[in-house]
Amino acid sequence: MASLPKSIRSLTKDQEKVLASDIRSDILSTAYIHGGHLSPNLGVVELTLSLLKNFDPYKDDILFDVGHQTYAYKILTGRSLERLRQFGGEPPFSDPESSKADKFRNGHASTAISVAYGMALAKALENDKSHTVSIIGDSSLAGGISMEALGLLATDKKTRLIIVINDNGMSIGKDVSFMGREFRKLRNSRFYFRTSRFLSRVMSKTRPTKRLFLWMRSVKDRLRQIVLRPTVFESMGLKYIGPFDGHDFEELDLAFSKAKALVENGPVVVHVLTKKGYGYSPAMKDEKGIFHGVSSRFDEEKATGNDNFDSYKKEFLLAKMAEDKKAFVICPAMVFGSDLEEVYKRYPTRTIDVGIAEENAVTMASGLGLKGYHPIVDIYSTFLQRSYDEVFEDIARERCPNLFFVERAGLVGEDGPSHQGIYDVAYLRTIPHCRVFMPYDRDSFFFLSHSLWFTKDVPTFIRCSKDAPVNDHAEIERRNGYDIVSMAKRKKLVIAIGPNGMALLTKAAKMPWDNVLLLDLLPEDSLWDSLDLSSHEEIVLYDPYSTPEGTSDSLARYLLSRHYQGRYFPLCLPKAFIPHGKVEELYRHLGMDVESAYGKIMELFGKDNLAEKKA
């Protein structure tokens, strides 16, 4: 445990409290400077300290679900948060390349139990006696993968797997799941458990009182069956202990010592109660999820502009929900992040937050659509990929005309490869009937949203970037599926996508080539036909929001089918796990920012030749 403070196991309880306070200060200052996941990390400081006091992170396998609550773990395993989430700096989630204390790369919810069970099973087969510990939040526990893993664990008697339920009663905002309600019931039984532990300590001091306690405990066990129903874990056949106070070092140490004794005969669930945002009053009072993930300088008053795709979407949905009584909005756990609070407040009977359950959100939308409703699924691009099968089987195959707003389409920055929304066009392209569009300004957003409002018997996906809309741009002429910036039947053509695409075309509006902004990202051949592509000797596609397997390959397939004799240059994001960092830095690093793309086009088309023609 070379990276851990040598004295961590010998700290007094007072010293542990001081250390916990220092770690919280470090987390707060880091979030203030760089942004990040604030509340989840503040809530698990004592839990993390106790984990590292009772387990060896290099010998044992400690896995955090999602990984958005590992800041204290990073500090205590010898890492600095000085450049957290910055390009080339410490990753936002767990990453084995960052430290040997991290055992797998994460970023999405509900996977830690399955991964941990696989590790524990492998170790059992090798007679490895080290522990495997999975720390998972109460809301992630409600995810389908978690429940599938728990169902499998019930019959296991050989793996040394400890599942720590970090129960803070929150998802990103307030937890809406069945498991959340069950945990609230367990919270209400906390007096029972604390009284039992207190009596155990007091009455074990002398032989007579110890005998009395043992008799009382047998009565207690019978009483417990009357007073408390079995927990959901016990009903599944799993060993369960808790709940324990997740901010009390003595209780946490007791919990883990008990768990290590019980796990000799198979997996055990440890239920720990924490307070999200603990130690920072505004975060502790937050029920909306404002402090779940924060931007830098989060406590400063910032101007709340309405010039972004989220605000356009909110305005559109508020109007459409009033107009169309069949409209129904579904969002998996990101109501606050997607700026849908006002929509949900105004239309409570026609909106639902399904929690961390993307697959359910999509298939539920299918059921609504089949009954004549107009379901709108608002979902992050990176989370939509978890629902590939549901889109394939339950939406596209049923030809449900559902509308999807795909949030965070393109690079998202500091959250890194697990959250970059750059793959959806590519995988939706493999599913029949899916139509994908992307606006670049306010007008194109409302044009697409209105014109695509349940007018076709196919699912429609409107991608919304985190990039600012480009409302100040060159004049356009709108056609079916694209906007013309300049078209004079020149020999060279630039096709671009999204806000950065329009910024590029505006910059190049007076250059001697044709410029087209594509709205329909997976168009039918008739759209490509209307552009008369064969008349251009050189074609560039600038797509800073997707990998080559999306629109770029769609265009390449068309050109090949038409025996195109010219040259085609795709400028796209690479098919790669793009690291964390500010979006602007990532664009520059990848050579996909507007200036770099413009320079590449000048080189491809020939600077000298262009200069002569322009003159």
Name the features.
26 helices; alpha/beta; six-stranded parallel β-sheet; 615 residues; 19 strands; six-stranded mixed β-sheet
Figure out the total of helices.
Answer: 26
Shape: elongated
Question: Helix coverage percent of residues?
Answer: 40-55%
Main-sheet strand order equals 9-8-10-11-13-12
Mean pLDDT: 89
**What's the Cα radius of gyration?**
28 Å
Q: Which parts are unreliable, with pLDDT below 50 for 5 consecutive residues or more?
A: none
User: Largest sheet, if any?
Assistant: 6 strands, parallel
Structural class: alpha/beta
What fraction of the residues are assigned to beta strands by DSSP?
5-15%
* Ends apart, CA distance between termini: 69 Å
Number of strands: 19
Give a description of the structure.
The radius of gyration is 28 Å and the shape is elongated. The termini are far apart. The protein has about 625 residues and is α/β, with parallel strands linked by helices. β16, α21 and β17 form a beta-alpha-beta unit. Strands 9-8-10-11-13-12 form a six-stranded parallel β-sheet, with helices on both faces. Strands 14-15-17-16-18-19 form a six-stranded mixed β-sheet, with helices on both faces. It has a five-stranded parallel β-sheet with strand order 2-3-4-6-5, sandwiched between helices.
Ordered list of secondary-structure elements with their pairings:
Layout: H1 13-34, E1 36-37, H2 39-42, H3 45-54, E2 61-64, H4 71-76, H5 112-125, E3 132-137, H6 138-141, H7 144-153, E4 161-167, H8 178-188, H9 190-203, H10 207-227, H11 232-235, E5 239-245, H12 249-262, E6 268-273, H13 281-285, E7 293-294, H14 309-323, E8 327-331, H15 341-346, E9 351-353, H16 358-370, E10 374-380, H17 381-384, H18 388-396, E11 403-407, H19 424-429, E12 435-437, H20 442-451, E13 460-463, E14 477-478, E15 482-486, E16 492-497, H21 498-507, E17 514-518, H22 525-530, E18 538-543, H23 551-561, E19 567-572, H24 583-590, H25 594-605, H26 607-614
Parallel strand pairs: 2-3, 3-4, 4-6, 5-6, 8-9, 8-10, 10-11, 11-13, 12-13, 16-17, 16-18, 18-19
Antiparallel strand pairs: 1-7, 14-15, 15-17
Helix pairs in contact: 3-12, 5-7, 14-20, 16-18, 21-25
